[in-house]
Amino acid sequence: MAEQNIEAKLKNLLKQEKIQLWNPPFTDDSNEPGLQHMQELAQRFAPLVGLAESEVGGALESIRAQAVKRGKGNKTYRETCVATLELLLPRDNKGDPRKKNYLESRLDVCVQQVMDRIGEEYGLKSIKLILNGKTLSADQRLEEQGVKNHSKVMVLKVSDAERKRQTAEEEKKKNQNESLQRTQKGFQILSERDGSEDPETTPFLEIADQKGNPLKIPHNEKKALILAMGFHEKGRSLMKRKQYDNALCHLLQADEQFGRCGSGLLGSVDNYAVLQLDIVWCYRALEALSCLDDGRVRLQRAEDCFLTCYGEQQQRLLMIKGNTGREEVLFLRLYLLQSLLSYIEGNDAQARHQLHKVESLYGRLCLDSEKMAQLMALGFSDREARLGLRACQGDLQEAAIHITNRRQEREELKQRERVKRRRRMEGISALRELGFSRRDAARALHQADGDGDRAYAILLDSAQAAQATNNNTEAAVSPEKVEQLLYLGFEQAESEAALRLTDGDVQSATQLLLGGQGLVSPPPPPLPSSSSSSSSPEEPSTSSESAEDSELVSEVLEDISRHEEDYLDLTLDEESELIATMKSYLSRGPAHLV
């Protein structure tokens, strides 16, 4: 980081003075340095950055050489399609830390071919290549995995023990997409549930505000939000296990789903801001410094989102929750990452300013082990103890009361949800007795905010509209056409519904039935008259799932924390290490900056 810090400072000075080191008089026709002019520049810049002239001269030459190399690489790529890749070699293979290592290659070759060349040239037996925090698959081409001209590729040595697992690891990487797909499908199933199933046996996801109260959200946005939060939870679970590369894949999927939600919705929940922090935290853990531009944008996005969600000076959060102590860990991480990026960009003053804010927060959030032990002796979990003490600024008695109140609030909320869902089930049963399908009854009740009379009116209007449509399309549903579909193995009600939807086109109706595996919902049956005593036959629940679907749901639910404030429960161990590292770098003198 120190070398990048020096170069960033010098690049800023060069930019301010509009100096182009790759042009004369700093670079001659043979691409060699103009020694006299480079030395004069080093003498002039050394006092400006507070460093020794020799160090400034070396850093300037490194910048000049990189610029010349980049220019030559651009010309080569334009003329021959041969890209120049910068290799970040393992520490014991780097030699001179200022020397850059490059590899020229076409981008339409397999990664394995490049790995073989690197291994032969640098005497490395087993390696893997990392680009932007992701391991490149050996059997895929460079261009397929985002490698471009001038990409920085990290080369990691594989130990003997790891080499034995390499085959399994490659298989695991191939299955990473399958993991993403399984996560998405599991949360899609959950996002389609309407909360009408038995709460004791069927998991259901609800979008809630910061107090745990359900939010009313348009169906499409709710579906995207559940998928986004599902991918986020999976990513956080992987982060806890230090599997940062796989975690990053899931977090970026979450970011994509959040992009499908309205900005108003993102401003009402802090999940989006927390996701941005988690992505940049993964960049840091993976030393993916080539992602710094993206990291800067994401941290600004997180800060803006916190401002919208929590209010100026966190007043809105204070009104909602009564305290801000627990959320302060998020600001600690935000300021710490901002300090790190400022330092790498050469802005030491800003890095120190942000680090000062971090240390102030850390002093308040670092907990007394004795108080933690006393709360846990009362039967509270370590998570409850941490969150309680931070919420109450370390006051032991207040923390115990706070934790007890939070437990009671959560239990009351759960009880209200149980009552709400049971009433909903009773309403669905009543509407089904009137001849409506379970799915239509559930949707009507949702639309009517649980009011059974309004739901009945909605269903009645829908049935009458469907009846009118049926009268206009009877010609399309001729017995002969229905018979053809029955001969193909489809059910009569589904066949008639498909023919109505396709204006009697048998071929289109067949494709429709095949595309939905034969599951085309027929319109609701006619309403029974008030004098009718007959009941409609029992309809199997449309919410029932296959064994595979149930397995998927169980799999994704394993990664969802049972505690709604799990994302605030940071031990601050990793943060403490990074704080110490930052203090070490910012306190170094010029002679130590190597």
Could you characterize the architecture of this molecule?
The protein has a five-stranded mixed beta sheet with strand order 2-1-5-3-4, sandwiched between helices. Among the domains are: 1-80, no CATH class; 82-160, Roll (Ubiquitin-like (UB roll)); 476-526, Helicase, Ruva Protein, domain 3. It has 24 helices and five strands. The protein is mainly alpha-helical. The longest helix is centred in the last third of the chain and has 38 residues, at 396-433. Mean pLDDT is 77; it is low at 198-204, 516-544 and 589-594. The radius of gyration is 31 Å and the shape is globular.
Q: Could you give the topology of this structure?
A:
Blueprint: H1 2-16, H2 35-49, H3 53-80, E1 82-88, E2 101-106, H4 111-122, E3 127-131, E4 134-135, E5 152-157, H5 160-174, H6 176-192, H7 219-240, H8 244-258, H9 263-266, H10 271-285, H11 292-310, H12 315-321, H13 328-344, H14 348-365, H15 369-377, H16 382-391, H17 396-433, H18 438-447, H19 452-472, H20 479-487, H21 492-501, H22 506-515, H23 547-557, H24 573-586
Parallel strand pairs: 1-5
Antiparallel strand pairs: 1-2, 3-4, 3-5
